[in-house]
Design goal:
Layout lengths: L1 H25 L11 H11 L4 H42 L11 H46 L2 H5 L3 H8 L1 H34 L1 H48 L1 H6 L3 H53 L5 H42 L24 E8 L8 E8 L4 E6 L5 H8 L7 E6 L2 E2 L5 H5 L2 E4 L8 E2 H5 L8 H10 L3 H5 L8 E2 L8 H15 L3 E5 L7 H15 L3 E5 L11 E6 L2 E6 L1 H7 L2 H10 L1
Parallel strand pairs: 3-10, 3-11, 6-9, 9-10
Antiparallel strand pairs: 1-2, 1-4, 4-5, 7-8, 11-12
């Protein structure tokens, strides 16, 4: 029993992990499929479409015209058939051949063709106009989202998965555009067709119209039940698709670990189990999807049989003409299919409105505080000296739980500042505040005596160069990645920076040298080599102030020593901030800041801190003694 319970717990934990990965991959797949405020969302979407609303007005006019002509067409066909039938009977009674002339049916046939021609033209106009309205609205919202994402603070991205943000900016807007072009237009046409067709049925025969409505009500009930169940089964299938996708991605990324621990069999078994779950869910969803439509149409065919029997009796009794009889069946076809589709269309529209709400949620997010205008912004005298000061800085990711309460220190130009402390002590947060990735809650940070908050972010950041522990490469050539921080750099400058970072040798061993294409997730270069390239990128940028966040954490000891010498040459005469866990790399720092829980608990030189026999001395001795 204990073993079974343990397996169940393990299975639950595995499923929770897969669900988290699925959310990260699929973004908004698990978001609610019903809007929170249907009419409010519709009103705002209409407001967002200003400048394009005239297109939608044209669509409405075209839908009305199309409904009028498509509903009028069967009535004209009844006139055509009755006229031709009368002429055929007269010709047969007079013993002459029947010939269609302009007065004997030709005019009616021409009018009938003209009605359908106009309906086709109006239908084409409304389709193209609706597509233009939807795509232009999609483009407008995409542009707004793009501008919004550039103005959102880092805290927005810290609290959301990348897949979620990407999905809202792409998939949700694509769904909205598709539904507007197809679902909404189909719904408008269905409403017009049903109203017009049922009205004409009552004009021709109220009794047969009532029979049609009874069977239509039954079809609508079946459609709604099938639609509700189909959505549930489709959601279940999508859930297992996400589980399987996440498992495949995990197995592919961790294939080396799987082989190293001989877990191929277990991994295959997990894949088979997930695949079987997906197959079972797909079988249920596909069965209902393929069985519901024939069942609903069967009810419609039964209604047509009943109406045909009753109509034949009325035709024999002379209460209906032949043309009216066939026109009535045209109206049945015009009304029955839209009725069965309307429930599905409404569900689709609700899902699209939920997607639109998620887009609006991003547009309503609080933006970063705007930069001062160039006229009002403070400016640092050029060239920048590199004097940095934190003056009673307060900050917290959550305003209710401050991380830094009173941080103060000053850095003179050209000094090397080391920041040490345990994971989560606030080292990277300090750098984020310096770069204005986050805004301080109190106090101020100055560069050469100028408050950084009064400067534009662009002017501030152009004085910094960063090498992060997480080495990131863009899709492109090695030369493009090194020159990323200095657009327009010559090949010779790139090579010189690569040599200083001790990266030139391995680049020349690549198949195409500096023209070799790399990407952050590619495996043609190692993590250490990626970090060397980012160091070369910082060297080429030649910044006034350097920030090194564990810049040598992924290289071997020999390469680390070489890089340290190169970085020492680069840091000469420049202010530099070094976040380090290997204390051997910062013993020559002009100032060492020891952080704990967001607060600087010690500061001084290496010798001063060792003599104080405090937290730094304990940390240093734990590494070297």
């Amino acid at each position: 029993m204990t073993s079974a319970k343990h397996r169940d717990d393990e299975r639950e934990r595995t499923e929770r992990d897969v669900e988290l990965e699925e959310r990260a991959l699929d973004g908004a797949d698990d978001e609610p499929q019903a809007p929170r405020d249907t009419w409010g969302t519709i009103r705002r979407l209409w407001s967002e479409s200003r400048g394009q609303q005239w297109r939608f007005a044209i669509v409405i006019v075209c839908v009305v015209l199309y409904t009028v002509f498509s509903v009028a067409a069967p009535a004209f066909s009844a006139d055509v058939i009755d006229t031709l039938w009368t002429e055929i009977q007269a010709s047969f009674a007079q013993g002459r051949d029947f010939v269609v002339t302009w007065d004997r049916g030709g005019r009616q046939i021409a009018v009938y063709l003209g009605v359908w021609t106009i309906a086709f033209v109006v239908y084409s106009i409304q389709t193209f106009t609706m597509a233009g309205f939807a795509e232009r609205l999609n483009l407008m919202l995409r542009n707004r989202i793009a501008r919004k994402l550039n103005r959102l603070p880092l805290s927005f991205y810290d609290s959301r998965k990348p897949g979620e943000v990407v999905s809202r900016a792409t998939n949700d807007l694509d769904k909205m555009s598709e539904v507007l072009q197809t679902g909404l237009l189909r719904l408008l046409m269905a409403i017009g067709s049903v109203i017009g067709a049922v009205t004409m049925m009552f004009v021709y025969s109220p009794m047969l119209a009532c029979v049609f409505l009874v069977f239509s009500a039954l079809s609508i009930v079946l459609t709604r039940l099938a639609a509700r169940r189909t959505l549930l089964l489709a959601a279940e299938r999508q859930k297992w698709v996400g589980h399987l996708t996440a498992a495949v991605e995990e197995a592919y990324s961790g294939r080396v670990i799987i082989r190293a621990f001989n877990r191929e069999g277990a991994s295959s078994a997990d894949m088979r189990a997930l695949t079987q779950k997906l197959a079972d869910a797909s079988r249920r969803a596909d069965f209902l999807t393929n069985a519901a439509a024939p069942a609903i149409r069967f009810v419609g065919r039964v209604s047509q049989v009943v109406i045909a029997v009753l109509g034949c009796g009325m035709l024999v009794a002379g209460r209906l003409t032949l043309g009216t009889f066939q026109a009535f069946f045209q109206y049945i076809m015009q009304a029955s299919e839209p009725l069965t589709q309307m429930s599905m269309t409404v569900n689709t529209l609700q899902s699209a409105l939920a997607s639109v709400e998620r887009v609006f949620d991003i547009l309503d997010e609080q933006e970063v505080e705007p930069d001062p205008t160039p006229e009002l912004a403070a400016h640092v005298e050029q060239p920048v000296c590199g004097r940095v000061a934190f003056e009673h800085v307060r900050f917290g990711y959550d305003p209710e739980r401050p991380l830094m309460r009173d941080v103060s220190f000053s850095v003179e130009p050209g000094q090397k500042i080391a920041i040490v402390g345990a994971t989560g002590a606030g080292k990277t947060t300090l750098i984020n505040l310096l770069m204005r990735f986050y805004e301080v809650d109190g106090g101020r940070i100055t560069l050469d005596g100028v408050d950084t908050h009064a400067m534009t972010r662009e002017e501030l950041r152009q004085n910094f160069g960063m090498v992060l522990q997480d080495a990131w490469l863009f899709d492109g050539t090695i030369e493009e990645n090194i020159a990323y921080g200095k657009p327009g750099a010559t090949h010779e400058e790139v090579v010189a920076a690569a040599r200083m970072a001790h990266v030139d040798f391995f680049v020349r061993t690549m198949p195409r040298g500096y023209e070799t294409r790399v990407a952050n997730d590619a495996e043609n270069i190692s993590q250490g080599q990626r970090q060397l390239l980012t160091i070369a990128r910082a060297i080429l940028a030649d910044p006034k102030i350097l920030i090194l966040d564990e810049a040598t954490s992924s290289v071997d000891t020999r390469t680390e020593h070489a890089i340290v010498h190169a970085m020492e040459a680069l840091m000469h005469g420049r202010t530099s901030f070094v976040i380090a866990h290997r204390l051997s790399t910062i013993v020559d720092a002009d100032l060492i800041l020891v952080m704990e829980h967001g607060t600087i608990i010690e500061q001084g030189t290496h010798a001063e801190l060792l003599a104080a026999d405090g937290a730094y001395a304990a940390l240093y001795n734990s590494q070297f003694m």
